[in-house]
Amino acid sequence: MLHRHGGTIMETYQVSVMVPPPFRVRRLRWVFGDGGIYVLCHSCRYQVRKDFPYCLRCGTQRKKARVDQFDAPQLRRPGSTGTSVAMVTKDAFTIGRSSGNDLKLDHPSVSREHARIVRESGSYYLEDLGSLNGIRVDSGQGPQDAERIRGGKARLHDGSVVFVGDVALIFEQPRTAAIGSKTMVRPAGATMLAPAQELISPADALADEHAPPEPLSATPRKRSGWALKQVPDDRGRLEWALSNTRTGAYLSLDERQVFVWNQIDGRSTTRDLLFAYLEEYGELALPRIEQALRMFASVDLVAGLPGQRSTEELSFWRRAGRATLNALLRMEISVKGLDGLIERGYRRFGWWFFTRPAIALLALVVPAGLVAFWFDRDKYKLLDTAGAGPWGGAIVLIVFFAACTVHEMAHAMAVKSYGRRVNRGGFMMMMGMPFAFVDTSDMWLGSRWSRVVVALSGPLVTAEIAGGLAVGAWYTHSPIAGAILFQIAFALYLNTLYNFNPLMPLDGYMALSDAMRFPRLREESRAYFTRGLWRDLRRRKLPTLKQWGMTLYGLCAILGTYGFIALGILAWNGRIGKFVHKSVPDPWAHMIIVAGIGVVLFPVWYGYFKALTRLLRRLGDKRQRRVRQAPAKA
């Protein structure tokens, strides 16, 4: 898994480099996950937390869960606050116009005894009591597609919109800090901008060079296409994830940043945000508000800030240059729209991977494969297919890349088991090396332990495949088949070790950083080693134990990065060097090789180029200030 950070922007890729169990299982639903054990819902096959009694997707009650030990579901009017929530506290909760009902709805379309909510067979149902206008339950396609029911009943799930007569109600499972809040979504196209006559266009404001926009008078506006969710946290803190659903970028927010986000309504100026923040938290924190606004703008979720220019305002050449730079920095070929295909695969067979037999199989095959591989080392030689020739090498490559595909599918199936989206997948270049990836950044709306499970699923499955091949190599009596299986197992074991490497932004690093609650472990450790440690030593301040650990990790991460760069240079020089030297004379051949490696490693050296540019700019600014101050002193 590759993890990219830019400030607080989080973008996650599962990068490769579960095999289904060989038997069919039914109604075996225990799996490992957050805080111990998850249960697969036997109705929809998605994971249900053990600290919650119902599946949030279909409303099915978790097996062996006692309902009276948990908060009951809720009914509320759309758009209402918590004060208007009606609690469903009984096995039969009646709704009607008369005062004897548990929920009284004074509306002419509602009968005196209209409907009731009952719990049976492990789920909740809305049942019509022979009313005149019946009931409807929104199936997710919109209220116009909800079928009217008279004298029947319909199953309820979390977020179901029910219509008692013409009165809309929302049926919800109450959230806890461990589960997180419901995701608030503003789809693309559903704008939140204020009417045009009430706003000043940033382009018009920037047109007059003599009248730049006043920062406090700027009117920030939300762009459409975002999702906001309180993510589960086991430390009692409020943490939020804000997503740009158009680009897939994510932000990690605290409670105060979420407050600023909620205050942006397209009419309030920065000054209004400042006073709202003062009223809420008792401090005038303009730098904090400006930082939050810049952070929202960095993922293209806020417009109207001073100096901000939209893409449409740039010239053709500036837009082309920006697109070329982004392509060189990302270097990927991705396919969108994979979520539906992966969803169908999970519903049909993927959920089997998360049953107790599948996990038991993983726990048995991995150590058995390591033992078999240890004994195979004397029986077979590395890089020797025992006379299989080119066909043996081709089989090794084909099976290896097939295993890498299964590796990525394991990541994708783990994401789907938590009910989250797989945005896209494809191939990318990282430090000059090719990788396949599955974009799992939607897991930032889940808990940290769910991200650990997703990160480890790929390399563990790769180790399971390698173990099975190693056992096969030990068991077979054919020297050619055994040698081929041994070579594939060796390659997959190397791949597993590489993915578990915590020094590079891969699966092992992601699992480690989430387990330690340290999402920017590499960046902060490298920054402390290069700057903070020496600053503390100059001040004669002894680093803490945590800072010494960050120093050690930062040093190892820097050495690992340079080692990876050197490996990439050697690999690409070996791949293209011979071909170029045969086709082009020597002076030009070296230039072509250097240019090719420079393009392949562009994301690496471009970061150092930007840092050097910033340093030179700061030195130039200091020199100009000294020149301006010299006449004043004279």
* Strand segment tally: 25
Q: Kindly state the mean pLDDT as a whole number?
A: 77
Q: What profile does the largest beta sheet have?
A: 9 strands, antiparallel
**β-strand amount:** 15-25%
Helix fraction? 40-55%
Protein name: FHA domain-containing protein
Keywords: Membrane, Phosphoprotein, Transmembrane, Transmembrane helix
Domain FHA: 93-138
Pfam family, one: FHA
Please tell me about this protein's structure.
The longest helix is centred in the last third of the chain and has 39 residues, at 545-583. The model is unreliable at 1-36 and 190-213 (pLDDT under 50). Helix 7 crosses helix 9 (448-475). Helices cover 44% and strands 17% of the residues. Strands 1, 2, 17, 19, 20, 21, 23, 24 and 25 form a 9-stranded antiparallel sheet that branches. A hairpin with a 5-residue loop joins strand 20 and strand 21 (250-253). The chain has 15 helices and 25 strands. It is of the alpha+beta class and 634 residues long.
SSE topology:
Layout: E1 2-6, E2 9-15, E3 30-33, E4 36-40, E5 47-49, E6 74-76, E7 86-87, E8 92-96, E9 103-104, E10 115-120, E11 123-128, E12 135-137, E13 148-149, E14 153-155, E15 160-164, E16 167-172, E17 184-186, H1 202-207, E18 221-222, E19 226-231, E20 239-244, E21 250-253, H2 255-263, H3 270-281, H4 286-298, E22 302-303, H5 316-330, E23 332-336, H6 339-348, H7 356-376, H8 389-417, E24 424-430, E25 433-439, H9 448-475, H10 479-499, H11 507-515, H12 521-538, H13 545-583, H14 586-600, H15 602-633
Parallel strand pairs: 8-9
Antiparallel strand pairs: 1-2, 2-21, 2-25, 3-4, 4-5, 6-7, 6-16, 8-10, 10-11, 11-14, 12-13, 12-15, 15-16, 17-19, 18-22, 19-20, 20-21, 23-24, 24-25
